[in-house]
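Question: does this match?
>
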Amino acid sequence: MSRLILRKSLRIAATIFPLIYYFSGKRTTLIVVFGFLCFFICVEIFRFRLICFKEDFFSLLKYYVKEKEKKNLLTATWFLLSIFLIVVFFRKDIAITAILFLIFGDTASALFGVRFGRTKIIANRSLEGSLAFFAACLLVAIVLNFTLLVLPWYVYILGALSATLIEIIPLPLDDNFTVGIFSAIIMSVLT
């Protein structure tokens, strides 16, 4: 559990990206996210090409990296790619909402699912974790309702529901990539 808390604390730190977007705009956000994404792509290239780098990388970051990431892209790479594409293709209010759904929904789902998850629904997903995901997204919507990024409530609710459902469904792509993009598409269609 402590390993999970460490990993999710980094996820919460990613709220810096929607904050940059909110206060500094699209161009600045894209530059910052692109910089982080390039760094992670370089890490991916090095760790798949250089055995010594790969061994050092995993021993250094053993508390932050999942076992499945040893043979696949890091979830952070998928996450940053998702944020970049969301900022490029979607309106500011929808982009910020979708990114925050991804950050807080995923964190709540993981923490509550591991701690309280008893009712398995699909693969390693629990009903309790999924309900926590949805509740976190609704909490994000309540907070955003006090900013200048107000969307209609049905958009928030259906966006949160779509993010929750796409997180549950076992897709071939990492959910750190699909959740934010899918919820942004749904919210865009609804507005």
Remarks:
- The chain has a mean pLDDT of 86.
- The chain has one domain: 2-190.
- Residues 2-190 form one domain.
